[in-house]
Design a protein that fits this description.
By secondary structure, the protein is an alpha/beta fold. It is built from nine helices and 14 strands.
């Protein structure tokens, strides 16, 4: 069963953005200092909507410019809630309701110290059960850009969906971006396999750790340059150090971060990606779009959870 919230579409200069990826329930536990093994650790705990794909879509829709669509898979347990939350952010969700698996859940352990570092415990649930049968070429009608969450690379059904979506996008001349999503899962998948799976992607948006893992290089700029020999545009997200952009084996732009006081770094990279893609759709050059991404990332780390503030 597929549910869809349509509403009124708003078309930006560059057409619509379709995001395909994970829709997750985040349980965010904010604690201070080390966890006390074998006993209690005081924490402030909230349940919020999340998922890298869903977060990117919400941040991209935040400006209200281009139409943003999202294809994801959830369990019946939380489908209606996620639909409402996505629609409230201005996203047009198309959620496949899985008849067997529950909605994916991530427990986010956030240290409330200065760096607001976070650790994830992930049960992907229905999110990685997206499969080719969930895809329709009609999803690309009116779409200028397709964004794929890297979490789709980490299960066989969703890898098959990525291949189908890439082929469909190439046939229509739709630009494709991908965020590798998780250094830990990439390590399990294998670098060579990952690089083969992303062949045909136009824009790669890794974090510094992901870029260094994919290249075996310790420096983010060097990693960006190397990756850009395989992908036309590489944007490496470096958190408080901003972003590095590379094409054709050369770093050509460095964009500074925006100062922020972190409360929760969950979803900061998703915010960057959403802000970046929205700016590209509005006609911005990639380096200017990266500046928008940095502004979105700074706003994200000052909030709890991975979503933008609700529109007024």
């Amino acid at each position: 069963m597929t549910t869809e919230v349509l509403g009124t579409a708003t078309n930006g200069r560059g057409g619509a953005l379709l995001v395909v990826g994970d829709v997750i329930t985040d349980v965010v536990a904010r604690h201070r200092g080390p966890l006390a093994a074998g006993t209690d650790t005081a924490a402030a705990i909230r349940t919020v909507p999340g998922g890298a794909g869903a977060n990117v879509a919400c941040w991209a829709a935040r400006g209200g410019g281009a139409e943003v669509r999202l294809l994801g898979r959830v369990g019946a347990d939380a489908a209606a809630w996620h639909e409402r939350e996505l629609a409230a952010c201005g996203v047009r969700p198309r959620l496949v309701v899985d008849p067997q698996a529950p909605t994916g859940t991530v427990i986010c352990l956030v240290d409330t110290g200065e760096a607001a570092e976070r650790t994830f415990l992930t049960d992907s649930g229905a999110s990685l059960r997206l499969e080719p049968d969930d895809w329709s070429d009609a999803l690309l009608d009116g779409v200028a850009r397709l964004h794929l969450s890297g979490y789709l690379l980490f299960s066989e059904p969703s890898r098959a969906l990525v291949a189908v979506a890439l082929e469909s996008a190439r046939a229509r001349g739709v630009q494709v971006s991908l965020d590798p999503a998780s250094a830990g899962f990439l390590r399990e998948l294998g670098v060579n396999r990952c690089l083969s799976l992303i062949e045909g992607v136009d824009v790669l948006l890794p974090s510094r750790d992901e870029a260094c893992l994919l290249t075996g290089l310790p420096d983010a700029a060097d990693a960006a340059a190397k990756l850009s020999r395989h992908v036309p545009l590489v944007v490496v997200k470096q958190g408080a150090e901003g972003a590095v952009l590379a094409r054709s084996g050369t770093v050509y732009a460095r964009v500074p971060a925006v100062a922020a006081t972190p409360r929760d770094t969950t979803g900061a990279g998703d915010a960057f990606t959403g802000g970046f893609l929205a700016a590209l759709l509005a006609g911005a050059a990639p380096e200017d779009a990266a500046a928008d991404g940095c502004r979105a990332g700074a706003l994200a780390v000052e909030r709890v959870g991975g979503r933008p503030p609700m529109p007024d």
